[in-house]
Specification:
about 325 residues; Inosine-uridine Nucleoside N-ribohydrolase, Chain A; 12 helices; about 35% helix; binds beta-D-ribofuranose; binds calcium ion
Length: about 325
């Protein structure tokens, strides 16, 4: 078991993506967290871009010692769906960041996840999943023993009372690889779900984005540039001022869980119906005997999340 004063060991699995990028920056800036590695997956953009974007962000943070791994280039069963309209053609629209010099690790992301979990003490490593769940599902298939060694999975995905953002029923990360999500939610690993119900409340208003620019640092300026573009792709369409800042909520939850509230229920994934493919179905009222497998977050303190982000990103 982890003692309270030692940093929490995490693996971040992501598809950067501007909000993934800000989540990685928050983790790299936070003393409560030790990032064992950043694994990447195809999602917002193709894998060749997500792995490169992860390295760009580690370099922006000045953390070139971070290990970055490339994983699955497409979902388990369905063809890849990407989200350039939200994140820009190359995934990190907004700032112009230099081509990364730090290396991509040779090991496949799935092998890294398995090795890290088998080598570290049981119950000491958490998985932060910020993209489609393909790598996590493949790791669970490759070495089922890892399921009892994971401390917890905290993932951004799903939409419950709020519906979806890609189809009326489904949120992007689950929609892209519903079969992988089904494997993860059936794995028995304790899961915290950060769905759209919570993240749609964490909006990049102009004032909040301006606070990053006021830092006057490379990281602050790049973050403001990313979030301004991210905002433009959502604003007006759905939320008035600002777009939802999804993935950083996962890291914020690990650092300050008191900023969030939710409830433990069973969550199952739709993998058959064309109409509702990728829907996250919560047994909110225990009308089945399906086991409770996830804490679903529904409330987020948006001011608290942005205050934490600004405080931590200032350190980089
Ligand atoms: C999720 O989809 C992606 O576009 C974001 O990075 C986030 O992980 C939100 O639905
Ligand atoms: Ca993401």
């Amino acid at each position: 078991m982890r003692s309270q004063d030692t940093p929490r060991k995490i693996i971040i699995d992501a598809d950067p993506g501007q909000d993934d990028a800000v989540a990685i920056l928050l983790a790299l800036a936070s003393q409560e967290i030790q990032v064992l590695g950043v694994t990447t997956v195809a999602g917002n953009v193709q894998l060749a871009l997500t792995e490169k974007n992860a390295r760009k962000i580690c370099e922006l943070a000045g953390k070139t010692e971070t290990k970055v791994f490339a994983g699955a280039s497409c979902p388990l069963v369905r063809p890849l769906v990407t989200a350039e309209e939200w994140h820009g053609e190359a995934g990190l629209g907004g700032p112009t960041l230099p081509e990364p010099l730090m290396p991509l690790q040779k090991l496949h992301a799935v092998d890294f996840i398995v090795q890290a979990l088998m080598n570290e003490d049981p119950g000491t490593v958490s998985l932060c999943l910020l993209g489609p769940l393909t790598n996590m599902a493949l790791a669970l298939i490759r070495e089922p023993l890892i399921s009892s060694r994971i401390d917890q999975i905290v993932l951004m995905g799903g939409g419950f009372f709020t519906g979806g953002n890609v189809t009326p029923a489904a949120e992007f990360n689950i929609y892209v690889d519903p079969h992988a999500a089904d494997i993860v939610f059936r794995s028995g690993v304790p899961i915290v779900v950060m769905p759209l119900d919570a993240t749609n409340k964490v909006l990049t208003t102009r004032e909040r984005v301006a606070a990053f620019r006021r830092l006057g640092t490379k990281v602050g300026t790049a973050t403001a540039d990313m979030l301004e573009l991210f905002e433009r792709s959502d604003t007006g369409r759905r939320f008035g001022e600002g777009g939802p800042l999804h993935d950083p909520c996962v890291i914020a939850y690990l650092i300050k869980p008191e900023l969030f509230a939710g409830r433990e229920v069973n969550v199952s994934i739709e993998t058959v119906s064309d109409l509702t493919m990728g829907m996250t179905v919560a047994d909110w009222w225990s009308v089945t005997d399906r086991p409770k497998n996830a804490i679903v977050i529904s409330e987020a303190d948006a001011d608290g999340v942005f205050a934490l982000l600004v405080e931590r990103l200032e350190r980089l």
